[in-house]
Write a structure and sequence with these properties.
six-stranded antiparallel sheet, elongated, single chain, Trypsin Inhibitor V, Chain A, 409 residues, 12 helices, three-stranded antiparallel sheet, Phosphorylase Kinase, domain 1
């Protein structure tokens, strides 16, 4: 659907003078307009005729836009007004001068880097927290709807309106493909965790320049999401810590219950990875379930060196005191970390452990632990995921959930 240059110069709603086309898509066209009452420039989004002529669609579009207008947050585009003028259905929004979409930035400049990607995610999650606190779900979080510029990042264009029967879905659906969680691709009800999956996909793309689940159509992307976890970001770019790997992979988990359950929880996890990230030369395995393949033999020399190094550390620590690690082995008693506040603990890594060893690790960390089991014969028994991610600093007694496979009885 092409834009209509014939609207240039027209005054709609007895208030907004349309001056120029800003952007055009399948569902709508965005114009620069002048608010003649308040003497300010605004963005005027006009619904395309094919959609505006469907009364049910147009009414829902405007009603939900009015609900969004009740939101006020620096990381959300501000909706000022909605209205009709003859055949036109329009929304009046904040005009973002000097902003570009994240999609355009990634296409032209490549990945953002760890610090910039985390900073962007922090702002995006702050906006989503405001959305969810009002009982709304954005439904279309994607790089094309994240705007970056001289001010704070802005989340735009709620995907709350569905295309009328028989009409093409347009940019709102097609452009969202690689950020859609499985439940959205299957047409199932969405929750805040659905938006957080999309936020995780954006963080993955910001770090790596790649989508986590590739594919050219919904069926292929859905199959990729259901098949296995993607490569952790550290496998594609340098400078990503194990804790950040774990947080990103958790955010884009195909199972909603295993994702972060609130924007605040995901934000805290990401802040923790930035604060507590420590340089490491160890291979990142915390977020990846153990694989069984002939290729594992290539790790034997490295494993042998790590065992020798651990033995040396243990000998040195004998004079400093030892403790039982819960598996009958003696291990050094860790010195208190100077970065930990009184009453806080660092979350242990339990991925890859047996249930018993995971419980022991959680007890030693003074966490309120729970194990959720999935019965299957397709995977080896043991813990394959956890929340919060390993390495995060939390209060003693905090809730700690481990997800484990166990064989059928």
């Amino acid at each position: 659907m092409s834009a209509s240059p014939g609207l240039i110069g027209r005054i709609v709603g007895d208030r907004y003078r349309i001056d120029a086309i800003v952007a055009a898509g399948g569902m709508s066209t965005v114009y620069r307009a002048r608010d003649l009452r308040l003497e300010r420039d605004v963005a005027l989004k006009v619904l395309a005729p094919a959609y505006a002529s469907d009364p049910a669609f147009a009414d829902r579009f405007l009603a939900e836009a009015r609900a969004v207008a009740g939101l006020s947050h620096p990381n959300l585009i501000h909706v000022y007004d909605t209205g009709t003028d003859g055949e036109l259905r329009f929304i009046v929004m904040e005009l973002l001068e000097g902003y570009r979409s994240l999609r355009a930035i990634l296409e032209r400049e490549g990945p953002l880097g760890v610090d910039d990607a985390l900073r962007l995610s922090e702002q995006l999650l702050a906006g989503l927290a405001a959305v969810h606190s009002h009982g709304l779900i954005h439904c279309d979080v994607k790089p094309g709807n994240v705007m970056m510029g001289p001010g704070p990042a802005k989340l735009i264009d709620f995907g709350i309106a569905r295309a009328p029967e028989g009409e093409p879905a347009g940019e709102t659906t097609i452009g969202s493909l690689h950020a859609m969680p499985p439940e959205q691709l299957r047409g199932e009800p969405l929750t805040p965790a659905s938006d957080l999956f999309a936020a995780g996909a954006i963080l993955y793309a910001g770090l790596t320049g790649r989508v986590p689940y590739p594919g050219n159509d919904p069926e292929t992307v859905l199959a990729a999401e259901e098949a296995a976890r993607p490569l952790p970001p550290s496998a594609l770019v340098a400078g990503v810590s194990p804790a950040l790997d774990a947080a990103v992979v958790q955010a884009i988990d195909p199972v909603p219950a295993r994702r972060f359950q609130s924007a605040q929880a995901m934000s805290r996890a990401l802040r923790g990875t930035l604060r507590d990230a420590q340089p490491s030369t160890e291979p990142v395995v915390a977020a990846v379930a153990p694989a069984r393949s002939p290729g594992r033999r290539s790790w034997l020399p490295l494993l042998a060196m790590l065992v020798v190094a651990a033995a040396v550390v243990a000998v040195v620590a004998i004079g400093l005191g030892t403790g039982d690690d819960g598996r009958g082995r003696r291990s050094p008693t860790p010195a208190p970390s100077p970065t930990l506040r009184p009453g806080t603990v660092r979350v242990p890594n339990t991925v890859g452990l047996s249930e018993a060893d995971g419980e022991a690790a959680a007890r030693r960390a003074n966490l309120s632990w729970t194990i959720r089991w999935q019965e299957t014969d397709a995977h080896p028994a043991g813990i394959y995921d956890q929340e919060p991610a390993a390495g995060q600093v939390v209060e003693q007694g905090s809730r700690f959930t481990m997800y484990a496979y166990r064989p059928f009885d």
